[in-house]
Amino acid sequence: MAKSKTIYTCSFCGYQAPKWLGKCPDCEQWSSFYEEIQIKASKMTSRSPSGNHPVSIDHISTDTEDRVSTGIEELDRVLGGGMVCGAVVLIGGDPGIGKSTLVLQALSKLAHNGNNVLYVSGEESLRQIRMRAERLGSLPDNLAVLAETSLEQILHEMKELQPSTVVIDSVQTIYTSELESAPGSVSQIRETSARLINHAKQTDTASFLIGHVTKEGAIAGPRVLEHMVDTVLYFEGDRGHSYRILRAVKNRFGSSDEIGVFEMSSEGLQQVISPSELFISERPERSPGSTVVTSLEGTRPLLVEIQALVSPTALSMPRRTAIGIDYNRASVLVAVLEKRVGMTLYNQDVFLNIAGGVRLNEPGVDLGVIASIVSSMLEQPVPSHTAVCGEVGLTGEVRAVSQMLPRIREAARLGFSECVLPKKTIKSSFKKEAITLVGVETIQEAVDYLFKR
Ligand code: TYD
Ligand code: MG
Questions:
Q1: Cα 427 versus chain centre, distance
Q2: 131 C-alpha vs ligand 1 centroid, how far in Å?
Q3: Which residues sit with Cβ closer than 5 angstroms to ligand 2, an ion?
Q4: Which of 68, 247, 371, 423 is the most buried (most CB within 10 A)?
C-alpha cells in the first residue's frame, strides 16, 4: 500500500502547503502549520455510504444513556452521574497533580465490579504501574495494563480485549506511524485522538484520555481536541496543598460546572464529602482581612475564606495581586470601593488570596472581597459568625446571585449565625432557616453594618 500523502495546513486560515512553513503567506500567522494526512479523492468516493437516514424527531428513542458508576462518587458527580458507554472524557491537569492516580483508582473500582478494563500507559513502565496499584491497595484480575505508545498496536489490543472502559495515559505520548511529525505534536495528537474517539464510538467503549496542560492553562495540543470529546475535566489544585479539585468545563452528558473534591493521601485520592469544612478549617479567629463567603460551584454550595492584606505602598504604582480570583475583577472592586465608599487605596498595596488555593470564578464572592479589603484597611475583623455573599456592580450596588437557599443552608450547617446578602434575594420562605439574614442594597450599607461605622 502506498503511503498516504501528507499536507501542511494553517490552523488559522486553512491555507495549505506541501511543506512546513514558519509563517503563513496568506494570513501572516507564525507557527500555525500542522501536518495532516490527505485522503486521495479516489479513496473518498469509494467509501460506502453509512446507511444513516433522517428520522422524525418524535420517533427518536429517549431511553436514558447507559451509565456505569465509576465507584468514585465525586468522579460520578462531575461526569453527570456516572460514565456513559461510548463517551470520551478528556482529563487535563498539571504534571504530578494526580491524573494517573485518579484514573487507576476508578479503573480498579470498575474492575472490582466485574468490568473488563484496560489501562494504556505511554509514560510509565508496567512495574511502576503495578507498584502504584499496590499502593492504592488493589490488584483486580480484569484490570489489564498495556505499556505502549503506538496507536496501531493499541487499537489492535483493544479489538482483541474488548474492554468496557479504557484509559489512555496520555494522548501526548501516543503516535501513529502514518505521520512523520513527532509524538506530542499537534498533528499527532489530532490524528491519534480522532482515531481513538472513532473507535470508542464504534465499539461503545467508555474512554478516558489524559492530556497535559500547558503553562497558559490550555490542554497541550490543538483546542480542537476539546471539541472532539464529549466531556472535558480539569484536575487542579496547589502542589503545596493536599486537596485537588476535579472540574467539568464541558459535558455533553451533564452539567458543566460541577466539581469534585479529593484529598491526596498516602493511599491515593480520598473523596472529600464536606469541602466547606476543609476550606474554612484554618481560618484565623478575629483577625482583620478574612471573610467567609458562601460561593457556589455547580450545584454545590461551598464556603471559602477570602483573605486581603492592605498595606502602604513603597512604589509609585501600588501593587494589586489576586490569587484564586480574577485579577481584573479584583481591580474593579478596588476601584468601586474607592469611589463608592470613599476609601483611599491609591497609596496602598492590595493583596488578595483565596485560602487553601481554590479558584473561584463566581460573582457571588465580590462582596466578600470588598469586606476583606475594608477589614484589613480598618484593622477590624469581620465578625467570625458572619458569612457574606453578593455580586457588586460598578455603582456600588449589591446585586442578586443565583441559588441563595443552598448557600445560606450551607452557612447555617457550618455554624454561621448570620449572613449578609443582597436584599432582593431574601424570600419570606427563608425565615425558617436557622440563620439571621441581613439584606443590603449597596456596599456602603454592607460596610456600615459589618464594621459598625
Ligand atoms: P500522578 O497520578 O502520577 O500525577 P499525574 O499523572 O497527574 O502526573 O500523581 C503523582 C503524585 O501523587 C506524586 O507526587 C505522588 C502523589 N501520590 C500520593 O501522594 N499518594 C499516592 O498514593 C499516589 C499514588 C501518589
Ligand atoms: Mg501521570
A1: 32
A2: 12
A3: 100
A4: 371
* CATH number of domain containing 121: 3.40.50.300
Q: Of all atoms in ligand 1, which is nearest to the CA of residue 267?
A: 22
pTM across the whole model: 0.80
Q: Are residues 148 and 115 in the same domain?
A: yes
Structural domain span for residue 19: 4-39
Q: For residue range 374-389, list pLDDT tens digits in order.
A: 999 999 999 999 999 9
**Which of 67-105 are b and which e, b meaning 16 or more Cβ less than 10 Å from the residue's Cβ?**
bbbbbbebbbbbbbbbbbebbbbbbbbbeebbbbbbbbb
Are both 444 and 296 inside the same structural domain? yes
Q: Which of 245, 273, 301 is the last residue of a domain?
A: 273
Pairing of strands 117-121, 143-147: parallel
| Tally of domains in the chain | 3
Beta strands in 103-188 (DSSP E): 117-121, 143-147, 165-169
- Over the stretch 397-450, which tens digit does the pLDDT of each residue have? 999 999 999 999 999 999 999 999 999 999 988 888 899 999 999 999 999 999
In the reported structure, the alpha carbon of residue 48 is separated from the centroid of ligand 2 by a whole-number distance in angstroms of: 40
* Spacing, Cα 102 to ligand 1 middle (Å): 9
Residue at 49 is within a domain: no
Q: Is residue 55 part of a domain?
A: no
Q: Which ligand is nearest to the CA of 97?
A: 1
Query: Is 84 within the bounds of a domain?
Result: yes
